[in-house]
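Question (not urgent): is this output format expected?
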Amino acid sequence: MALLQVQDRDAVREQLVAVLERPVWLALFTAEKGCEYCDLTRELLAEISELHDELSLAVYDLDADAGRATALGVDKAPAIAVLGGSEENDYGVRFYGIPSGYEFASLLEAIRMVGSDEAGLQPATRVFLEGLTVPLHLQVFVTPTCPYCPRAVVLAHRLAYASPYVTADMVEAMEFPELSERYDVMGVPRTVISDAVHVEGAVPEAMLLAKLQAAVQTVAG
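Got this back:
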């Protein structure tokens, strides 16, 4: 039984046709043990990848394909890396956990961004990223029922796409409880920047920029 209803498939197909201008690869990492949502994530991505010729799915095993996982910095499953142009073009855009509920829109937006080469960031943010020399790792903790979480995820992914020094992960908080406990995630969205700065809520871009600047000072110091 298909995960996407017929009307949903048609809507997603129309959206992809309208925005994709170049190939997008979805690299999915699964695990045989301890991964409750791996099969569902694989089914979901398989259905999506069938909706456009420029969209491809590559499935890896976290253990059997450890070299590929290491190259992409993937250490848990299910994990999705959204790659562009070819399977080797990595922009640091990641999903950890199934992108269901409201986060399905975040996945579609990541595909659109990589497939159209348009991040849509404000000038001040672009200036900051152009001068960035310190690696920053953003982890955005979410739940599928949080209507505000996609805003935080999409913004983080735009930063990663625009700078080789930024990586950004959507982390489904309930699928990775140990990670959520480590970062004291009591509500979502919560963004953790390089283990140095925490951001509560889906903040405006200018506010997140200030937090990024603070994180750079902390990491560099």
